[in-house]
Structure formats: structure tokens, C-alpha cells
Amino acid sequence: MKIKRNKMKDAFINYHLGNYQELAREAWKKTRKDDVARRIRAKDYTLWSASPDEIVNRLGWLDAPGQTLGKIDHIRKILAPLDEKKIKDVILLGMGGSSLAAEVFSKVFGARANYPQLTVLDTTDPAAIINIAQKISWDRALFIVSSKSGTTLEITSLFHFFYNETRKRKGADAGEHFIFITDEGSPLAKTAREFSPFHVFLNNPDIGGRYSALSFFGIVPAAIIGMDVEKLLNNAKTATDETGIMLGAALGTFACQGRNKLTVHLTPRWKVFGDWLEQLIAESTGKAGKGILPVLDEPVGDVDLYNKDRVFVFFQDENDDFSRIKNLNATGHPVITVGFKDDYDLGSQMYTWEIATVVAAYFLGVNPFDQPDVEATKIHTRKMIEARQKKKSAEEQRPGFSNADTSIYGDITGNTLTDVLNTFLKQSRAGDYICLQNYLSPSAEIDGAVARLRAAIFKKYKLPVTHGYGPRYLHSTGQLHKGGANRGLFMQLTGENIVDVAIPEDLNTDRSFLSFGALKDAQAQGDWRALKEKGRRIIRIHCQKDAAIFLKKLTASL
Q: Is the pLDDT of residue 78 over 70?
């Protein structure tokens, strides 16, 4: 198809597929032959599996735009008293699907005048937690505890900490500063009712976490910051199933042909939408040795830096470099361009990509609604925590390399930092990717240093380099890392906890046997062990001093 500049008046998805055009046409024919559109609407689990397990009770998202739209008056009525409380700071405690949509809405739309500011806290990093605790106005703070299962370790720990801190300041009125979003019958729903919270929103239990953006999990926080949620949901209702089916059929078919690195370029304003897409696609497709790896925030490189495992998606704006799209297409890479009218097109984009993801999973032959390999990290993390609780020493890793400020763990060789890193990375082959699993305290300075490290690795090894903060990535790409093809080289980045915060054992108590720093360390080591069990190539690089300087040295060593 000829590439041309599109006027940005209407939303669109265009395909510039070159030699892959006929392959896509055959995929689209297959969706019609197999009656995919009707079977999705009929909630036919046999599209993905012979067994209905974790499918028939995960398809409620198909009806979410209309169902949630019908509850907007109810939501607004419940939230109305917040005006009188003059809430200033809203802190959402969540992980993965229970938090990512809210983060998208918060960063894209911000807060309207006279509405509170929303901050998503999805980490166990003690410095990040202390930063939130120090900057909020406790008298005018509202916490949203957001968890589908009601058992997520990180969310429970954050809830205990912030509830107890609120109780110290507000006494018996502490519950009025908390809203809960969870499933009916979850342990969190039971706990919430025990102490007079502001409200408990019970979500449709037939909606899985990563498909919950247009349910209470995304829409309640959006309403609190003053978004026009009716406009968002009505926009979602305009999305046609056929648009998502065509997109998913193309992506799934290309992945089956080895083009499974979905390289997404977003406009600066929509950059955060990539994090939501990453979880949706990676956790839904990354299993049974298959999967589509989203590649976000990748530095722009010459076309000869890309291998034949790429598909490019460009979310367009008026300032796009269209010559780049033409060059990629001319060198054989499939390119898909996406246009949108305004920010409320997030509604239709979210619904379209949900449809696309389940259709891509259909072509890959995997169940998009389960996450069978996530539990492995949780098991190892629990073992380490239990050992700590019983005051037993967990088996310690010994570094294979160390100097004054760095220790490196894993199957490594070399006498210098340069030798160790390059020997590890030289194991890579065509079709691989490199993943930075970052357990350092998040900050703008660290973000910049990581971006420079990614760019250096990409330029030298010509492979996709992904990045995620831990433990957040465990609820996003962690499933694909362990359940997808053995194509990743994993570099864990860990450091000393400069500060730490105790996790209360329960509500209304200061007793603690575990800190957030210890929990974060256990999660890093738990994922290390789970990846090793899967035969993944992994090293852990531990910084003992200044993290930004440490990352600069890593970059220079390449």
C-alpha cells in the first residue's frame, strides 16, 4: 500500500505491509471463514482452548463500555461528597491491570481545575513510598486500594502501611479516606467492610485485570480527576470489532512468521499508553513458548539496525517523520499507522487493542486470559519471606565478579566489567531481545541513565532492548519472560536501599517482620530463581553506591 500523510481529523488504522500484504489478506480471510467476530460476541471459549477454564469467566470486558456507562450516575452520586471534603491528593495503590489504565488517564488528562491530583503507586521501593508519604496532605488525602483478587502482596502491604499512617493522624475516621475497587467475594472486599470506608466498588468478576480499563478499575479514578467519562465510554462504544480483528489477525500472523517484536512509537502525550499496551499484549500472548514482545521507548536507529523480527506501529501526529516510515517499509518491515482525533480516543483504542490481542492469541494458539508462569516468582518470593519470618538464612548468591562499587551474579566470565558484560551479551543471536529488569529507585535521573544504557546496547548488538521497573514489570511482561520463547537475555539491576520502611503485619498494629526494602529484594531474587528454573540467560548487577554513576559506568563499559 502507498504511504501517504493522513489528515488528523478522524481516527484510523492503516497498513503498509509490503511483501506481507498477501499474508495479512489471508489472515483476514481466515477470520471470516472461522466466524471469529460472531464467536467472540458469543463468548465462545473454543476460539482459544478446548477447556472453558479461565475463559468463560473472563469475557465480561466485551460488555464493559455499555455496562459501565449505565453506572455513571451511580458513580457520580457516590463520589459527590468528595467535593465537600476538598480532597487534594488521590493515591491509587495497585499493580498491573488494576492501576495501569488509571495511570494512563492521569498522565494524559491530568486533573481538571478544582479536582484532585491522582498519583499511582505501584512499587515496593521504600524511597518512592517515603516520597509519597512526605509530600501528600494527609488531611485532604484519599487512597484508592485497587485489586481484583484482593490478595496481591504489594497492594496488601501498601494498604497496611498507608492505612496505619492515616489512623495515626485521623483515628477512627481513617476509613473515610479509603475507596476500594475489587471483586465481590474477594478477601479485600471482606476486609474493607470491617471498617467504614468511604466506599467499596465491586467490579464485574468476569473481567480480568488487564482487560479492566473500561470498568470500575479505570473509570472510577478517571471520574475522580474530572474526566468526561461518558465521552470516553461512548468513544469506546464506537470501536468496531472488525477493526480490532483485522489488527489482531495481522499481528498474530506476523508473530507466527517470526516477526514477534512489536515496536511501538507513540506521541509524547500518549507515551504512557504504551505501558498499558505492553501489559495487555505481553501477558496475554507470552506463554507456551510463544508471544508478542512489545518494545517501547526505543531510541530511533538507522533501518539497518533492525532484524527481520520487527513489526512497527506508529501512533501519528502532525510532526511525525514520515520518511522514516517509508524507509522502514521499503526495507521489508511491516508498518501499521494509527491516528486519533483527540485524547478521548483512548476509549476506542483500548477496546480495539483488547479485541486485537485476543485475536492475535487465537492465531498463536494460546489462551489470552491466563498467566500460568506468573506464580513461579511469587512462590520463590514467599519462600524467601517465610525464611526471613522464621529467622532462617535464605541461600545466598555469590558474585562471580566484584569491584569497589559493583557485584555481578550469574554464569559469567571475565576479569573486568567490560569483559563480563560483553561476554554475557555476546551470547545473543538473531531473534533475541535484551531485558533490563530495574530494581533501582525510580527517578528522572535513573530514567535518563537507563535510556542511554539501552541506546548503547541497541547500537552495539542490534537487538531490541526492553526495560521495566521491578516489581511492576512482574505484573506486566513477567509472564512473557518466563512463559514465552527462550529469547531473552535478562540483566537485573539492583542496589542498596538507602532508606527503608517497615510493613505493618496487619491493620491497627505497628508490629512488623518485613520491610518494603526486604520485600523488593525478595521479589528480585524470586524472579531470578524463577527465570533460572526456566533456563533463561540472566545476570544480576548490584550497585553498592550511587545508582546513576553506576549506570553511567555500565554504559561506558560497552
A: yes
Annotate 483-517 with DSSP letters as a single string.
Answer: HS-S-EEEEEEEE--SS--EEPSSTT----SEEHH
Q: CA-CA distance, 448 to 438, in Å (whole number)?
A: 13
At CB < 8 A and 24+ separation, what contacts does 46-54 make? Answer: 47/358, 47/362, 48/358, 48/361, 48/362, 48/366, 48/367, 48/368, 48/369, 49/367, 53/370, 54/367, 54/369, 54/370
Strands (E), 151-216: 178-183, 199-203
CA dihedral angle for residue 33, residue 34, residue 37, residue 41, rounded to 10 degrees: 150
> How far is the CA of 303 from the CAs of 299, 300, 453, 497, in angstroms?
12, 9, 20, 40
Is 26:254 a contact under the CB 8 Å cutoff? no
Looking at the DSSP assignment, which residues form a beta bridge with residue 546? Answer: none
Band the pLDDT of 5: cuts 50, 70, 90: very low
Q: Is the model's pLDDT at 2 over the cut of 60?
A: no
User: Which residues, at least 6 apart from 244, have a Cβ–Cβ distance to it below 8 Å?
Assistant: 351, 352, 353, 354, 355, 356, 359
Find the helix or strand (DSSP H, E) in which 543 lies: strand 537-543
Least confident piece of the model among 43-47, 265-269, 389-393, 505-509: 389-393
Give the C-alpha distances (Å, rounded to integers) separating 139 from 87, 260, 375.
8, 49, 38
For 362, the 3-state DSSP assignment is helix
E strand or H helix that includes residue 349? helix 346-364
Residue 108 has pLDDT above 90, yes or no: yes
The domain made up of 374-499+507-557 is a member of CATH 3.40.1280.10: no
Mean pLDDT over residues 394-420, rounded?
A: 89
Superfamily of domain 71-227 in CATH is: Glucose-6-phosphate isomerase like protein; domain 1 (3.40.50.10490)
Yes or no: say if 397 and 539 are a contact pair by the CB < 8 Å rule: no
Task: Give the pLDDT confidence score for residue 8 in this predicted structure.
Answer: 42
Which whole-number Å values give the CA distances from 267 to 99, 319, 532, in the listed order?
21, 9, 37
Domains of the chain by residue range: 12-61+236-364, 71-227, 374-499+507-557
- DSSP structure class, residue 371: -
The answer to whether residue 556 scores a pLDDT higher than 80 is yes
User: What pLDDT is attached to residue 321?
Assistant: 67
What confidence tens digit (pLDDT) does each residue in 471-522 have? 999 999 999 999 999 999 999 999 999 999 999 999 989 999 999 999 999 9
Query: What cell numbers appear for 331 in the block?
Result: 526495507
DSSP assignment of 31-74 equals HHHTTHHHHHHTT-GGGT-SS-TTTTTS-GGGGHHHHHHTTHHH
Select the CATH number that applies to the domain covering 12-61+236-364 from these four: 1.10.3720.10, 1.10.10.10, 3.40.50.10490, 3.40.50.920. Answer: 3.40.50.10490
> Sign of the C-alpha dihedral, residues 6, 322, 279, 282?
positive
| Distances in whole angstroms, Cα of residue 336 to Cα of each of 15, 35, 284, 286, 346 | 5, 24, 21, 21, 17
Equal CATH topology for 12-61+236-364 and 374-499+507-557:
yes
CB-facing half-sphere around the CA of 393: CA atoms within 13 A: 3
